Amino acid sequence: MFQTVTKTLLVSSSSLVYRSICQSLRHYCNQSSTKLRVSEALAGAELGKNVRVQGWVRSVRPQKKNIFLHVNDGSSLQSLQVVGGAELSDPLLTFGSAVEVTGTLRKSPHPQQPVELGADQIHVVGECNSVDFPFKIKERHSLEYIRQLPHLRCRTNVFSSLLRVRSEATTAVHSYFKSNGFLQIHTPTITSNDCEGAGELFQVEPSGPDFEEEVNFFSVPAFLTVSGQLHLEVMSGSFSRVYTFGPTFRAENSQSRRHLAEFFMVEAEISFTQSLEDLTKVMEGMFRSTTEHVLAHCADDVGLFHKHVTPGHRDRVDAMLKQSFPVITYSEAIDILNRSSENFTFPTDWGCDLKTEHEKYLVKHCGDVPVFITDYPYDLKPFYARDNQDQPKHTAAAVDLLVPGVGELCGGSLREERLSLLKARLEDVGLEEIYSWYLDLRRFGSVPHGGFGMGFERYLQCILGVNNIKDVIPFPRFSHSCLL
Amino acid sequence: MFQTVTKTLLVSSSSLVYRSICQSLRHYCNQSSTKLRVSEALAGAELGKNVRVQGWVRSVRPQKKNIFLHVNDGSSLQSLQVVGGAELSDPLLTFGSAVEVTGTLRKSPHPQQPVELGADQIHVVGECNSVDFPFKIKERHSLEYIRQLPHLRCRTNVFSSLLRVRSEATTAVHSYFKSNGFLQIHTPTITSNDCEGAGELFQVEPSGPDFEEEVNFFSVPAFLTVSGQLHLEVMSGSFSRVYTFGPTFRAENSQSRRHLAEFFMVEAEISFTQSLEDLTKVMEGMFRSTTEHVLAHCADDVGLFHKHVTPGHRDRVDAMLKQSFPVITYSEAIDILNRSSENFTFPTDWGCDLKTEHEKYLVKHCGDVPVFITDYPYDLKPFYARDNQDQPKHTAAAVDLLVPGVGELCGGSLREERLSLLKARLEDVGLEEIYSWYLDLRRFGSVPHGGFGMGFERYLQCILGVNNIKDVIPFPRFSHSCLL
Predict the structure, then answer these.
(1) Is the Cβ of A123 closer than 8 Å to some Cβ of chain B?
(2) By 3-state DSSP, what share of chain A in percent is helix, strand and coil, each rounded to 5?
(3) What is the enzyme's class at the highest EC level (chains A, B) (predicted)?
């Protein structure tokens, strides 16, 4: 009975009075309709039934006899087509407005969509003034433009797709580690360590007048973590396999397309290793399984990037997954660079750090697929890297994974588990006292172990073909920018 | 053949020479034995087969004819019993040392364990000097004692159990949200917002001489997040259900058993809400499903806490799960407090903040189960809480979940989605300009929404019965303490 009343009212008016009556009737009507997400509706749930869908209008097309809407609630890239009689038209039904639609879910006569919602009621929940709204209907806004609007950019197709991919990739990373027997550890964000022994740290102190500047809140200087490695190494003395996945920080004064001041890192540590292969297997396994999961579970969202952002990128990703990643030593890499006819800006002598131009060349040389570089010069690596004890070219058991378009994606090493060697190296750099707790790990039941870290944003750049790292993180932080 | 050689050698000597030969033979022997985790061995995998297990010695019992070890690799609370001939004895086989054992997995004659490993070889991978090692065999060390050793405490039974529970509870939280259609958002750690409008913030600035003190790295003052709520609200304008799970910070000068400077928080935001019940349903659902998951998947680990740390706590947890959580309004809570015969230190007039003593009483009054308190005085709540527009007792649609032993576990509210009301309140407190982006969310397609946060460490305290919050996080940070 109430539904008939509503329908009659809908026909007779779209005035304020109608909206108020409609609202008061809404509660009753809602009782008889099933609330559905757009993705559920598109999958054909409740076909032929009375349903209720809530979301935001992505397009409006009023015609003589009908009004057509596309409603999206973030559950999928595809929106649900809503068809209503012309009497449901409302000047407040604009691009960006929020609506609740009640009606019957039915098969669509159009081949582009499986179903459509034949609307009995369209209620505008929240208005959106098209003149002020910075996104315009049917326009494809550039990534640069939407980046300026961090509070609204999730309302675009491209950024909501990115966020769905990011969420799904996160799930896939956790699930890879869980199914491979790794324990998740929440390594700390605030730390009194300086893992790399290098600068570029953010320091942390309470703000406000309650705290005297002279005394540290923590009694010691405290920093934002640059890596959870040392904390994971603690854990690898009790659990054979551990990982962490969280925010990591660098106070780098850089506006580069590959650097952020705050980024997410996946780090793992494995005990009882025998060689670098124990690490490369996990790195490759994680890359493969996460990518396959994302391609399978976010086909539409990934497709948007591969179609509109970097056309042709899908072929590149498929090529990456085709065969196992090649492994070359640093020494072989140097030979390859020296044999090439390329004119490099930076030197390529044995002992030099590999620069972006070198990494790019090596990846191309290996067939534009991810490539492992192993056994770097001992002197290039931090104190914890395991000494290979070779000569005359003295190397450490370290490994990087370079990927097309991005460069360094992962970095790892076996860790020096031999107390005497580690102690000597720490003494050399005058850090023996600060790291006495770290030496303890080698004093008590030390085991050969190693680990690696992967920049999660770079991973997303790599598989989606996104040029700028700022476009793959919800709220990018970099020098001179901390919006919201 | 090699195995015979090894056995002969094992019988003849336990000298350094033996160990060196043994090591070189190890590679060959490893080829023929399957590497197993302790948990897999205990589950009876590869029964009757030649296997290899790596881990740390939790007990050593040399007898006349045999040596008995318990080896643990962190995959379960229970260790694997290893039985070897007396000839496998080695002075380096001490509590805490790391070993690799090869042998045959067989049914155990003892009822306490399903299987045991009949050792052919025991190789000490890493020594552990029992005199220096701060944990002693067969001693049950107090939580206070092991807390002083953050780099080693994961090697105790109790703390490795805690870490397994924590990892599993994390998995359960993610899985609850995923299966309920929530998208995971990585909200930022560094922010230029001050969500609560209150102090107790950590400020972030680069350390070192490269950066001039006068100019902010981010061009604006930047802080560690106290809540991802506002960032989630951004997302709730495009996705109907979002959540975040990560580190959160308070520069509270507190040594309390319930506070940390860095803690983990689960936060969720839900669009198209109709009432607070839309939030309490999710809060209760998450609590229930996570707890049931942990009880089912970490029975041994949880059992250790319920048996040795807080005897009898299991009954309390079971009682919590028995029926739905009671809901009372703040006004009802005040009535209950005023009707009680208890002598409270703090006032209980309508409008007062509920203190720990009040929360404790209310939880007891409701039967020592989790209890929701709703509709707090409007003036007690931050600017974003939704105005109930009631009088004379003016309230906001806010809700807290109080739990036995811990007090406030969750806090949430419906958010003020009505532009005019929100704008007026922000104008009142002079924050209209700073939060103009937040007002934008109400200008463009605003929807009724709400959310909540749960302190993850407090949750673990609640289900395990752990008194001090420092004992449920891998590396606790609080005033005057930032170890490692």
Answers:
(1) no
(2) 35, 25, 40
(3) ligase
Backbone φ and ψ for A51, nearest 5 degrees, come out as -130, 170
B228-260 residue pLDDT tens: 999 999 999 999 999 999 999 999 888 889 899
- Reduced to 3 states, what is the DSSP secondary structure of residue B34? strand
Q: What is the pLDDT of residue B196?
A: 56
The continuous run of DSSP H or E covering A208 comes out as none
**How far away is chain B from the Cα of A340, in angstroms, using its nearest Cα?**
38
| Chain-centroid distance, C-alpha B219 | 35
Q: Which two tokens stand for residue B207?
A: 């350390």
The size of the A-B interface in CB pairs under 8 A is 334
Residue B254: which H helix or E strand, with range?
A: none
User: pLDDT at position B141, please?
Assistant: 93
Nearest residue to A102 (alpha-carbon basis) of A184, A41, A187, A163: A41
Chain B positions in Cβ-Cβ contact with residue A95 (cut-off 8 Å): none
Facing residue for B151 by CB, picked from A75, A205, A234: A234
Question: Do B329 and B400 touch, CB atoms closer than 8 A?
Answer: no
Integer Cα distance of B185 and B266 in angstroms? 11
- Closest CB from B56, B185, B262 relative to A445: B56
Q: CA B13 from chain center: how many Å?
A: 47
Per DSSP, the residues of B361-381 read: HHHHHTTSS-EEEEEEEGGGS
Report d(CA A20, CA A416) in Å as an integer. Answer: 72
Closest CA to A226 of A257, A267, A185, A254: A267
B79 with B70: CB under 8 angstroms? Answer: yes
Residues 6+ positions from A66 with CB-CB distance below 8 Å: A83, A84, A85, A86
Contact A5, A21 (CB under 8 A): no
Which of A472, A204, A438 shows the shortest CA–CA distance to B205?
A204
**Residues of chain A positioned with their CB less than 8 A from the CB of B272:** 54, 100, 125
Q: What pLDDT, in 10s, does the model give residues B392-415?
A: 999 999 999 999 999 999 999 999
Smallest Cα–Cα separation from A224: which of A171, A255, A256, A260?
Answer: A260
pLDDT at B252: 87
Q: What is the pLDDT of residues A472-482, one digit of tens each?
A: 999 999 999 99
Residues facing residue B323 across a β-bridge: none
* pLDDT per 10-residue tile (average), chain B, 484 residues: 39 42 49 89 94 97 96 97 97 97 95 93 97 92 95 97 98 98 98 72 84 75 95 97 97 88 98 98 98 98 97 96 97 98 96 96 97 98 96 97 96 98 95 94 98 98 98 96 94
Q: Which runs of consecutive H residues, i.e. helices, occur in B70-155?
A: 143-147
Tokens 């520069």 found at? B251
CA atoms within 13 A on the CB side of A168: 23
Residues of B in contact with A271 (CB under 8 A): 54
Q: Which amino acid, one-letter code, is at A483?
A: L
pLDDT above 70 as % of chain A: 91
Q: What is the pLDDT of residues B144-194, one digit of tens each?
A: 999 999 999 999 999 999 999 999 999 999 999 999 999 999 999 999 986
> Using CB atoms within 10 A of its CB, is residue B169 exposed (0-12), middle (13-18) or buried (19+)?
buried
How many angstroms separate the CA atoms of A442 and A418, rounded? 7
ipTM attached to this prediction: 0.93
Q: Residue B125: its chain A contacts at CB < 8 A?
A: 272, 446-448
In the β-sheet with B327-329, what is the strand arrangement from edge to edge?
A: B183-184, B241-249, B262-271, B449-455, B407-415, B395-403, B371-377, B327-329
Terminal Cα distance for chain B, rounded? 49
> What's residue B414's pLDDT?
98
Say yes or no for a CB contact (<8 Å) between A477 and B218: yes
